[in-house]
Amino acid sequence: MTDHDTLFQKTQHAEDFTFDERVANVFDDMVSRSVPFYNEIQRLQSDLIVDFLPENSAVVCDFGCSTGTTLEHITQHPKCPSDIKLIGYDNSEAMLDKARAKLDKLISAQTVSLCIADLNNLQDLPTCNVAILNWTLQFVRPIDRESVLKTIFNALKPGGILLLSEKILSSDAVLNRLYIEHYLQYKTERGGYSDTENQRKREALENILIPYRLDENYTLLERAGFGRIDTYFRWFNFANMIAVKL
Ligand SMILES: C[S@@+](CC[C@H](N)C(=O)[O-])C[C@H]1O[C@@H](n2cnc3c(N)ncnc32)[C@H](O)[C@@H]1O
Ligand SMILES: O=C(O)C(=O)C[C@]1(C(=O)O)C=C[C@H](O)C=C1
C-alpha cells in the first residue's frame, strides 16, 4: 500500500524533484491525484495495447515504469496473452523496489522482469511489440529525447506501437496559462492539495520536468521514424499519443 502524499506539506526549502525513496513511498497516491484521469488512461492503454499484441510471444517494454502500475494493468486485461513477457525499466532503485513488491507474483511467474536502466543508456533491448513512455520523456533532457525515441523505435517490430504520455504546453500563451490555472485548480479541488503544496511542487519540478508542445512531440516521433501518429486522449495540458512503426 502506498502512503498518502504529504511531501510538499513538509518541505521547508526548495529542492529539485527527484524520484527518491520519499517520492517512491507516496508515488501511487501522488500520481493518481496529480495526473487527471490517471486510472482511465491506464484502462484505455491496456485496451489499445492488446490490439497490437500477437497471440504468441508478445513483448511489452515500459520505460519509466515507476511502481509497475501499467504493467500490472496490462496483465489484468481479459485479452492479455498468457505467455506475454513484460519488462519494466526505471533509473530509480526506490521505484523499482515498490514495483518488485507490487508485482512479486508476476515476477516469480517470469511474466514480468524489472531492470534498472537510464533512458539515455538503453542497451540490449529485446525486440518488442509495444513500448510505453508514460510521463517520463518529459524528464529527459530535451537534447537527448530524439535519440531515446530512436533507440526505442529500433527495438520495436514493424507494426508495433509506442504509447507516449506527456505533460504538454499549448502554442498559444493565453490558452497555456488558462490550462495551467485549470490544472492547479484540479489539483486543489480533486487532488486535495493546498495552494502551498502546489506552488512548492511546481518550483521543485522547474527545469526538471520540461514539457514540449504537442507538435514538438509529433516532430520528435516522426524524426525517430514513426508513422500514423495520433492523440487518443487529451486533458488541457496533458496528452496521450500513439505512434506506429509502419
Ligand atoms: C512520472 S513517473 C512515470 C509514471 C509511470 N510511468 C506510471 O504510469 O505510473 C517518471 C518515472 O521515470 C523515471 N525516470 C526519470 N528519468 C529517467 C531516466 N533518465 N531513465 C529511466 N527512468 C527515468 C523516474 O524514476 C520515474 O519512475
Ligand atoms: O504534479 C504535477 O505538476 C505533475 O506534473 C505530475 C507529474 C507528471 O505529470 O509527470 C509529475 C511528477 C510525478 O508526481 C507524477 C506526475
Automatic annotation (TrEMBL):
Similarity field: Belongs to the class I-like SAM-binding methyltransferase superfamily. Cx-SAM synthase family.
Protein known as: Carboxy-S-adenosyl-L-methionine synthase
Keyword presence, Transport: no
NCBIfam families: carboxy-S-adenosyl-L-methionine synthase CmoA
GO molecular function, one term: methyltransferase activity
Summary of the function given for this chain in its UniProt record: Catalyzes the conversion of S-adenosyl-L-methionine (SAM) to carboxy-S-adenosyl-L-methionine (Cx-SAM).
Pfam family, one: Methyltransf_25
EC number: 2.1.3.-
Subunit structure: Homodimer.
Keyword Transcription: no
Residues of the Methyltransferase domain: 60-160
